[in-house]
């Protein structure tokens, strides 16, 4: 067994099993979907609160 140095003292070994990568990908996908849902819900609220059109909200600055 090699003596690897880990960045934090509490991390003494790499994650066990092959489920670490799929679990991380699943968590990332879930958080991405949650983020999209939050943005889709808040865009109409921005429109009414600030009195601007959706075209202005979606426009990028040059």
Explain this structure:
The chain has helices spanning 20-50, 54-58. It is mostly helical. The protein has a domain at 20-58. It is built from 2 helices and no strands.
Kindly state the percentage of residues in helix: 55-70%
Weakly predicted, low-confidence segments = none
Oligomer: single chain
Strand content: under 5%
Morphology: elongated
Number of strands: 0
Biggest sheet features: none
Lay out the secondary structure.
Layout: H1 20-50, H2 54-58
Structure characteristics:
62 residues, mainly alpha, elongated
Condensed summary:
The protein has 62 residues and is mainly α.
